[in-house]
Write a structure and sequence with these properties.
The chain is mostly helical. Helices cover 88% and strands 0% of the residues. It is built from four helices and no strands. It has helices at 3-34, 39-69, 74-85, 87-103. The longest helix is centred in the first third of the chain and has 32 residues, at 3-34. It is elongated, with a radius of gyration of 17 Å.
Length: 105
């Protein structure tokens, strides 16, 4: 695999991972906010957040490694890192919505 093929494959997968994580998290939050208090579903949601954190963290480490080693493609990998880490404030917002919407009512 050439460097460009690897760059494209890694970048494509990291963007797909970020989008899938966002979509699944949004679906879980919407379901949680519309159903009655259910501890099983809450545990499922927190398990999802931990798993998403783990897999996105692994991808972030790989992108940082590529950012450091692939000096000619730093802009590309920086954009991919920003796309991947954009889920962090979204997760904080969703957690805030969940806590304010369910636990404080």
């Amino acid at each position: 695999m050439t460097k460009n093929q690897y760059k494209n494959a890694t970048g494509l997968f990291s963007t797909q991972l970020a989008v899938i994580s966002f979509v699944l998290g949004t679906i879980l939050l919407c379901i949680q906010l519309t159903i009655e208090f259910n501890i099983s579903f809450i545990l499922l949601g927190f398990t999802y957040v931990l798993m998403a954190f783990f897999f996105n963290g692994l991808m972030l480490i790989e992108l940082i490694r590529l950012f450091i080693t692939q000096k000619n493609h730093r802009n590309y990998y920086m954009i991919k890192i920003l796309i991947l880490t954009s889920n962090i404030p979204v997760t904080i917002l969703y957690l805030n919505l969940f806590l304010n919407g369910k636990l404080l009512n």
